[in-house]
Write a structure and sequence with these properties.
Radius of gyration: 24 Å
Shape: elongated
Helix content: over 70%
Number of strands: 0
Oligomer: single chain
Order of helices and strands: HHHHHHHHHHHHHHHHH
Strand content: under 5%
Number of domains: 1
Number of helices: 17
Distance between the termini: 75 Å
């Protein structure tokens, strides 16, 4: 261990101001005003409802499907406002992307994921939470799905308003569960599946946090704390980019391209290994070229991680669009099938026009209301730079692959936020460790009091508690709201 490693001047600078926010582009700031944004969102919902009515004409239950389409558009807007922040927040917080650029990239790749690789068959409604056969009539089933859709959208809307990133999939699951209980009693719920989902509340963020913290430790020990940081970066950055490329290749093979081609987990991992090796070889000369003339300091390293971080944010958005959008509009697809054919017990295939509602709704929701959560995830939980944001993005891809291999249902939202917390808490631990080392070398240094130590915390405890509380109550809150809505809606259409 060198003297430089113990020198307090080389300790990582503490974050003194977590309130620093990224500036928004003028257009985004304008539409982000509450009245303007709400007005545009309302017009979008009306257009979706009108277009659905014109498309269906005098078909059976046209009014019901039009209402369901409006609810689906409302839900898609909320996904864009809340869920997408988890993919773009770290890159924006690390200043690798501007807010406007992030919104454009997310809108393109979320829509591409939904329209190209989304729309897979939903074999059991909302991941098998309830059995459609427990419903007495098709109208009761339609009422349950309407209630689930509206309740989950309302809950995600509330969570966005209070600044809590929550899982929209869990909100849908809670909504379906609550409507199922109200319609057919507790026996209608698949409690084994619900137990697995509840376990994912803990597994997803912890696994994401541990993986993100592990990679940050590796970057610090192998690059940042080295005497010659640039030489170390030339060795390890190609390896890290290769790992990221391989992880995302496997991630997209497993989760993002199911509709286009069926790939099992073993083949996906082999694809990932091949891509990782190829990228590693390609990046060796690229990193050498990028690193020429860079000063031997931490700030110079950010240049080498910026492009991989942008690419990872785009790929996360594509995979999110391919998966979570289908889950969110699943109830709408079930309503369409039950209303047009009367069959509500078989597998539900999501129509292309339903996916279009999801894709465009996410884009509008992101543009109108997304910056609030993007800022919170990217800069208000803990301070992110490109290296830390890289660790968050990589942990999201790896955690999904590991969870798929173990058969665990996980939330991409929980993984990403867990990764942000993971790098923040690791930095707190690492800073304290290095301060203790410095104190051992210079015992006469002034002691840091308890109040100052609390002020130096690198993770906002208030955001931590708000997010954890929102995660815990998402399913019961959506379920309760959905049950109440079902009673009212079933009386109206029953």
């Amino acid at each position: 261990m060198s003297q430089n490693d113990l020198d307090p001047r080389h300790l990582e600078t503490l974050d003194r101001d977590l309130d620093r926010l990224s500036s928004l582009e003028q257009a985004t700031a304008y539409v982000g005003r509450s009245n303007v944004g709400l007005g545009i969102a309302f017009v979008f919902i009306l257009i979706v409802a009108a277009a659905t009515g014109l498309m269906l004409g005098d078909a059976n239950n046209t009014v019901i499907v039009v209402i369901a389409a409006a609810f689906g558009a409302y839900m898609a807007l909320n996904i864009g406002a809340n869920d997408v922040a988890n993919n773009m927040g770290p890159a924006v917080g690390a200043n690798a992307m501007s807010m406007g650029f992030a919104i454009v990239v997310a809108a393109i790749f979320e829509s591409a994921g939904a329209l190209i690789a989304g729309g897979d068959v939903v074999s059991t409604i909302a991941k098998g939470i309830i059995s459609p056969t427990t419903m007495a009539t098709s109208s009761m089933f339609i009422a349950a799905m309407l209630s689930a859709l509206l309740a989950s959208a309302l809950w995600v809307n509330l969570a966005t308003w209070i600044g809590a990133p929550v899982s929209t999939t869990h909100a849908v699951v809670g909504g379906v569960m609550g409507a199922g209980i109200a319609a057919a009693g507790f026996a209608a719920v698949n409690w084994a599946q619900m137990s697995a989902i509840a376990a994912s509340w803990v597994i997803s963020p912890m696994l994401g946090g541990l993986i993100a913290a592990g990679f940050l430790w590796f970057i610090k020990s192998r690059i940042i704390y080295r005497d010659d940081k640039i030489a170390a970066a030339r060795v390890w950055v190609p390896v890290l980019v290769g790992i990221m490329g391989g992880a995302f290749a496997a991630y997209l093979s497993v989760k993002g391209l199911k509709k286009l081609i069926k790939i099992d987990l073993t083949d996906a991992i082999m694809i990932g290994v091949a891509v990782a090796l190829l990228l590693w070889l390609v990046m060796i000369p690229v990193v050498r070229r990028q690193s020429r003339g860079l000063e031997n300091r931490n700030k110079s390293l950010k240049v080498l991680f910026a492009i991989p971080l942008i690419v990872s944010a785009a790929l996360l958005s594509f995979a999110h669009g391919a998966n979570d959008v289908a889950n969110a509009v699943g109830p709408l697809a079930a309503i369409v099938q039950a209303s047009t054919s009367g069959d509500f017990t078989q597998a539900v295939s999501i129509p292309f026009w339903v996916m279009i509602i999801g894709a465009f709704g996410i884009s509008f929701g992101l543009f109108l209301f997304g910056p609030k959560l993007i800022r919170m995830v990217g800069s208000q939980i803990t301070k992110l730079n490109p290296m830390r944001a890289y660790c968050v993005a990589l942990s999201a891809a790896i955690t999904v692959i590991v969870a798929s291999g173990l058969g665990l249902p996980v939330s991409s939202t929980h993984i990403a936020i867990g990764g942000v917390f993971g790098v923040g808490f690791f930095r707190e631990w690492d800073t304290e460790r290095r301060l203790r080392r410095a104190k051992a070398v210079t015992p006469d240094a002034p002691r840091v009091g308890a109040a100052e130590r609390r002020r130096r915390k690198l993770v906002r405890r208030s955001h931590f508690m708000t997010i954890i509380a929102a995660w815990v109550i998402t399913v019961p809150a959506a379920a309760t709201l959905s049950g109440v809505l079902f009673i009212a809606i079933n009386r109206m259409i029953g």
